[in-house]
Amino acid sequence: MELLSDELVNYLERTCEPEPELLKKINRETHLKVLKPKMLSGHYQGRVLSMISKLIAPRRILEIGTYTGYATLCLAEGLTPDGEIHTIDVNAELEQIIKNNVQQSDVYSKVKFYLGDAIKIIPKLNEDWDLVFIDADKANNAAYYDLVIDKVRPGGLILTDNVLWYGKVLNDATRDKDTTIIHQFNNKVANDPRVEKLILPVRDGIFVIRKN
Length: 212
Description:
- The chain is 38% helix and 21% strand.
- By secondary structure, the protein is α/β, with parallel strands linked by helices.
- It is globular.
């Protein structure tokens, strides 16, 4: 099920900050040229990510799952002047699209892109993270969380996307494999005493997790 009606989504978009022109272009071209365009964060969720990033002014951001770079650029809006966003995607077919999109932005020099398996790449990144955005294959949400939690500074955030899974997490009787994995991850976070947490019902649900 859709969490919000189209009418309400339109209202939210009209009453938040406008979508920057480059992001409009990426949004449009992703829907025209790339498979599964619903994976793109889009206008309203993008402004949410931008706002959260600006509120904490991160110096180092890790993004797991780049897709076409839309959320990457939203998150980068809050970076400090010496900040960087490190972003990982496994899909080689998207590499040139990502690079083309990022190169058009004024934060190009702050974006460090890695192509490959995030589970193998993350341990090689010698950074402490102020903000982590997990938006890749849902089966590995828990693995990504475990890999980054000790490298997130106290007060830093982990954001995890798609944690409501179109409302499927509500139905115990008909949970499929993917929904079960997401539900188990949500319970894992809910019971982790190292963090404060809440789910924002934004689009498909964003888990906001603050390290103590």
